[in-house]
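U., I forgot to send this yesterday:
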Amino acid sequence: MADLTSEKINALFDSLGIKREPKAASAVSILISIAFLFFFCIPFFSFLNAWVVMSFWNWFLVPAGLAAISYPIALGITTLFGYLKFKQTDLKQDEKTTAKYLVNPILTAFTDVFLVSFVRIMGTYLIGYFISLFI
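Result:
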């Protein structure tokens, strides 16, 4: 078996064009990820969350005798409760999260914010939908 030293492995990776060490992200990629979060993710998930609240209200509370709510009312309710549950400690990050954002902010923003939030919101909606079928 050939002796594979770290120098030979690094030379092999370099010849294939494979980067082994992640480098810090450029300022442009950080700005792109911030713009993605601010202009797309936050409004999208606010509206999606309001749609889930409106659906839950109309599925579970209207049969109990309360009036149905419209989409703008549901958006106001989600905004109010989001404001009330926000804590300043929510802004603190650990070192791993900070390092992850510095290495690849666009991918991290997409996976952490977009996919996790989408799965959480739509999973909640689907559970509520199945429950509403049996009521």
